[in-house]
């Protein structure tokens, strides 16, 4: 089993506050994993540390497809195969989605291949009406998430971190987003979904669920872990001493 995302003894501080305390995590190629935990447990901080957001002091080791990333600038982390979908996708007025595709094609170097992927993904995801519109401007929550799945499909990363992609969505949109994530499942992609709730996981075939409390992963298991958390909450969980 080849590991797409590997994290070892990851510690992250923001000023005097230590947020992550020795995170250990592996996500193999071809699998979809979920990371759950209460507010303030460190889930979003893990995303920020992986993506290279400024302001955090990061120690430890992390690799995407065997390439160590923690010392790389953000653009090189993306080129190594790391992709993030945002909880609240950013609106980019004045930049059409088709122009974003053009920039991605220019950056990849093999523009013809990326455009082929864009045409196929655009048809599969029904993105035709959105290509001429500014990125995420005037879109519903579900449409914004569909646009991000379109970008994921054409970028073809090794690891996709989906940060609370079910946030603020109604039940129909949650089901749609879950189905969109499943369409991206492939042997060359590992997906890590970060979420508070199990509802999106009910509509997906999740391979493994990890629970983060107090800046560390305290439990890992199958879908039954999410079901138990939905029934019992996080109150009984704590970071091992």
Structural features:
four-stranded antiparallel beta sheet; alpha/beta; Rossmann fold
Short summary:
By secondary structure, the chain is α/β, with parallel strands linked by helices.
Number of helices: 7
CATH homologous superfamily identity: P-loop containing nucleotide triphosphate hydrolases
Strand count: 12
The shape is globular
Number of domains: 1
Strand content: 25-35%
- Supply the CATH class: Alpha Beta
Topology of helices and strands:
Layout: E1 3-14, E2 17-28, E3 32-36, H1 43-51, E4 57-64, E5 67-68, H2 74-80, E6 82-85, E7 92-96, H3 97-108, H4 111-125, E8 134-135, H5 141-155, E9 159-163, H6 171-183, E10 190-195, E11 208-213, E12 216-221, H7 223-232
Parallel strand pairs: 3-10, 3-11, 6-9, 9-10
Antiparallel strand pairs: 1-2, 1-4, 4-5, 7-8, 11-12
Helix pairs in contact: 3-4, 4-5, 5-6
């Amino acid at each position: 089993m080849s590991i797409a995302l590997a994290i070892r003894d990851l510690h992250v501080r923001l000023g005097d506050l230590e947020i992550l305390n020795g995170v250990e995590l592996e996500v193999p190629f071809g699998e979809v994993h979920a990371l759950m935990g209460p507010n303030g447990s460190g889930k979003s901080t893990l995303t920020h540390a992986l993506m290279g957001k400024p302001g955090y002091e990061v120690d430890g080791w992390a690799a995407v497809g065997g390439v160590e990333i923690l010392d790389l600038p953000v653009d090189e982390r993306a080129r190594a195969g790391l992709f993030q979908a945002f909880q609240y996708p950013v609106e980019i007025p004045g930049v059409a989605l088709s122009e974003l595709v053009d920039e991605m094609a220019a950056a990849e170097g093999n523009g013809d291949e990326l455009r082929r992927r864009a045409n196929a993904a655009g048809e599969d995801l029904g993105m035709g009406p959105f290509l001429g519109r500014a990125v995420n401007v005037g879109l519903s929550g579900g449409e914004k998430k569909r646009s991000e799945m379109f970008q994921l499909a054409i970028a073809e990363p090794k690891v996709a971190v989906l940060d609370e992609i079910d946030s603020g969505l109604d039940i129909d949109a949650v089901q749609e987003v879950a189905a969109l994530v499943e369409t991206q499942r492939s042997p060359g992609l590992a997906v890590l979904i970060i979420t508070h709730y199990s509802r999106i996981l009910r509509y997906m075939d999740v391979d493994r669920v990890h629970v983060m409390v107090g800046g560390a992963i305290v439990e890992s298991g199958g879908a039954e872990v999410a079901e138990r958390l939905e029934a019992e909450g996080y109150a009984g969980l704590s970071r091992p001493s």
